[in-house]
Amino acid sequence: MIVAANWKMNPELSVAAKLASDYCAASVAGVTRILFAPHPYLVPIGVRLEGSGILLGGQDCHPSAFGAHTGDVSTGMLRDCGASVVLLGHSERRADHGETSELVAAKAVQAFSSSLSVMICVGETLAEREAGNALATVLDQLAVSVPPTLPTTALTIAYEPVWAIGTGKVATAVEIAEMHLGIRGWLDEAGFDQTKILYGGSVKPGNAAEIFAVPHVDGALVGGASLIAADFDGICAAAAN
Ligand code: 13P
């Protein structure tokens, strides 16, 4: 199981440092923990994580190695700051920055060339689900976002229904099961048989066990609850069981 914390653009550095130390204090056996920290925090938070086994990740990268791209961050820079993984195609980046699946694929190729593994996010909007197009939307995103050349062990997929992010609304076990089965089928067909599939969207300690019991759910990508150490630990404990 994998439990990943996506801090997004939170919290202030002093709080972040304490949170990272609190993560390290929890003993979690058999669960891979990943922390996607804001880019300016990678180095100071990486120092806190040393020896904990928690992997450090960036929340985005540029598809080029270097160049005139003011404000952007390269995969080599992420690597040099201690990251071993990068989160790509989060729905907030797709919505706020108009990121396309083509761009996500280009970033994934660049990340792998810098020896970073990638976690690619997919997920439908409420309108797409209500129109009966949830699975088709997600499979279309996968088909374009996932570079066929990526090794299966360098890729993780995070299914995050957009309507469940930060809303307190969680997809039902049946909805998660249908989607994860569909994603699993697509991945296996495309040769990504070792690729894990995480669920994300309002995962909390109180609902984590039920979500982890769903077939083909290999862990969680956690936003809000990852900002409270006890909640993140609770989700990790549910994954360990
Ligand atoms: P919440 O857990 O706050 O719903 O966020 C999910 C998410 O977007 C993680 O990437």
Please write out the topology.
Blueprint: E1 2-6, H1 13-25, E2 32-36, H2 42-49, E3 55-58, H3 75-80, E4 85-88, H4 91-97, H5 101-113, E5 117-122, H6 126-130, H7 134-145, E6 155-159, H8 173-189, E7 196-200, H9 205-212, E8 219-222, H10 229-240
Parallel strand pairs: 1-2, 1-8, 2-3, 3-4, 4-5, 5-6, 6-7, 7-8
Helix pairs in contact: 1-2, 1-10, 5-7, 7-8, 9-10
Helix content: 40-55%
Distance between the termini: 10 Å
Small-molecule components bound: 1,3-dihydroxyacetonephosphate
Oligomer state equals: single chain
Rounded average pLDDT = 97
What summary fits the major beta sheet? 8 strands, parallel, barrel
Classify the secondary structure makeup into a structural class. Answer: alpha/beta
Alpha plus pi helix count: 10
Q: Spans of 5+ residues with little confidence (pLDDT < 50)?
A: none
H/E order of the elements?
Answer: EHEHEHEHHEHHEHEHEH
Record field, number of beta strands: 8
Major sheet strand order: 1-2-3-4-5-6-7-8
| Radius of gyration, taken over Cα atoms and rounded to an integer in Å | 17 Å
Strand content: 15-25%
- Which outline best applies? globular
Keywords:
241 residues, alpha/beta, eight-stranded parallel beta barrel, 10 helices, binds 1,3-dihydroxyacetonephosphate
Would you kindly provide a written description of the structure presented here, covering whatever features stand out?
The chain is α/β, with parallel strands linked by helices and 241 residues long. An eight-stranded parallel β-barrel has the order 1-2-3-4-5-6-7-8, surrounded by six helices. It is built from ten helices and eight strands. The termini are close together. It is globular and about 45 Å long. The structure holds 1,3-dihydroxyacetonephosphate. Residues 6, 90, 160, 165-166, 200-203, 221-225 line the site of 1,3-dihydroxyacetonephosphate.
